[in-house]
Design goal:
The chain has about 220 residues and is mainly α. It has a domain of about 120 residues: MetI-like fold (Orthogonal Bundle). It is built from 11 helices and no strands. Helix 3 packs across helix 5, helix 5 runs parallel beside helix 8 and helix 5 packs antiparallel against helix 11. The chain is flat and about 75 Å long.
Length: about 220
């Protein structure tokens, strides 16, 4: 009887899976280096209006094809030089990073929401839901992606939000395939069975048991 409180106290002080994951990431040099680079790029993109010394769209043919600053004929007025229209490369890179990050994160977010929702539903419920999702997947894979993207952009009109929507709507299949297979494995595990036995509804099981264990797979596909 004296050992039981000690065991319960040890369980209470044991780190959670999220705490263990954060501790491992904090010791992973490759992750820290990559995160530092991404954060630096994001900060430079957000501060582009203040960091860029020139208008990224301003053309100056008198200063076309200037070499970068480290060249013998270069200057720090244009650190990376200029293009064939005299536009400053560094300013264009800083402002272009904002569009690239917006498209990348926005499209991946849309694809993640669509693919994870369909993949978890198909993997958890199975049966008719799985067959319906597989039919949607087959239809999506049968369509030529580039032709469909060009058609949507032509019908809706070219703009950054349209590009984000089109790319996200065409790239949810990766999330679906991965999450469906992982969910089919997770739903057969003991802790999911225990949650059902305790009276948890399917949405509760999915939110509290399935999705936390899909986080690593979703993060990998999201970064790709």
């Amino acid at each position: 009887m004296a050992e039981r409180p000690a065991a319960m106290e040890a369980d209470a002080t044991a780190p959670t899976p999220w705490q263990s994951a954060r501790a491992r990431l904090a010791r992973h040099r490759g992750f820290l280096a990559g995160a530092a680079v991404i954060v630096l790029i994001a900060l430079m993109a957000l501060c582009a209006p203040w960091l860029a010394a020139h208008d990224p769209y301003a053309q100056d043919l008198a200063r076309r094809l200037l070499p970068p600053a480290w060249d013998a004929n270069g200057s720090f007025a244009h650190v990376f030089g200029t293009d064939h229209l005299g536009r400053d490369y560094l300013s264009r890179l800083l402002h272009g990073a904002r569009i690239s990050l917006a498209i990348g994160l926005g499209a991946a977010g849309i694809g993640c929401v669509i693919g994870v929702t369909l993949g978890v539903a198909a993997g958890y419920f199975g049966g008719r839901v799985d067959r319906a999702v597989n039919y949607l997947l087959a239809c999506q894979l049968a369509l030529p992606g580039l032709l469909l993207a060009m058609s949507l952009v032509f019908l809706i009109g070219p703009s950054v939000p349209v590009v984000i929507f089109v790319i996200g709507a065409l790239h949810w299949t990766y999330f679906l395939v991965v999450t469906r297979a992982a969910t089919m494995q997770i739903r057969a595990l003991d802790y999911v069975t225990a949650a059902r036995a305790l009276g948890a509804s399917p949405p509760q099981v999915i939110v509290h048991e399935v999705l936390p264990n899909l986080a690593s797979q979703v993060i990998v596909v999201f970064t790709l």
